[in-house]
Amino acid sequence: xxxxxxxxxxxxxxxxxxxxxxxxxRGRRHRLGCIILICLCAVLCGARSLTAIGQWAHxxxxxxxxxxxxxxxxxxxxxxxxxxxxxxxxxxxxxDPAALNRMSTAADLAVLIIDGKSVRGSRTRRSxxxxxxxxxxxxxxxxxxxxxxxxxxxxxxxxxxxAGMDIEGTVISADALHTQTDTAQHLVKERxxxxxxxxxxxxxxxxxQVKALPWxxxxxxxxxxxxxxxxxxxxxxxxxxxxxxxxxxxxxVVRVHRWVKEVATGRVRRTYAYVITSLSAEQAGAAxxxxxxxxxxxxxxxxxxxxxxxxxxYSAELGGPTPDSTKGAPTCKDVTV
Length: 337
Prior knowledge:
It is built from 13 helices and 11 strands. The chain has 337 residues and is α+β, with helices and mostly antiparallel strands. The protein has 3 domains: 1-103, no CATH class; 105-175 and 301-318, no CATH class; 192-295, no CATH class. A hairpin with a 2-residue loop joins strand 8 and strand 9 (231-241).
């Protein structure tokens, strides 16, 4: 694989993350920040496995290694040497993915979108597919990500993925799986955050309460239209206060009516989505709530980029003993996103 010119990512070039280096200080020849930058650049240039990343590093020209801060091995000649494929593999397999995420996370976390995903290509004959739970910003940056343990659920993992971050005042947006009273209590009471949770039939009592609200009498507070991908779409948002909703700290309920017309066939689809939030009317009006609801699609966009643009997970390609053997690799792809 022929390397292309690479410029260090501003998000990683300043904080090197050496405090997160899992290696013993004795014998370190290459800085952790340099190794990570090489991995990210290799992935952006098409590397799909740790072997390919090692090849990219080996073939990188001197001017690229200089920009990435590679180790100088011949000071009199100014020659720099890239870390070997074995070093890259050893670092990535021992690096805590959460530490890598923290190195690239913006300080401002006004909104975090939570969702889970099974990584394509990570299932083997001896192990289940790797299931990840990610917290990302509306701009698409992965703020934190953990692997959900086998035979467990995403529900308790939500608290783990947010651990270690200051989320006071942050709006946590999650799908219907996380619409749980314990989750709401944890976010608002313990973490001083806000929630924006989808309401579906997995919580039948809450769903029936929300659906039975006087939506016909409620005015349409916000409407937006869009056209693209062969369809016309119109979204109408109604918002009601939630004084009698039996859910912790609920302040408002949102109903989004989606009208979608397929241009080619003329087929029309109408759907309703319900969302409950701890944000008061003073904190979030209809327009902001509509934007928060719409922003949740970015998690699916992240999954599409990871699986389609960058290819399936690394584990199947490498044939490692377990999906954990390449635990740093999916995070490298997420940081490049």
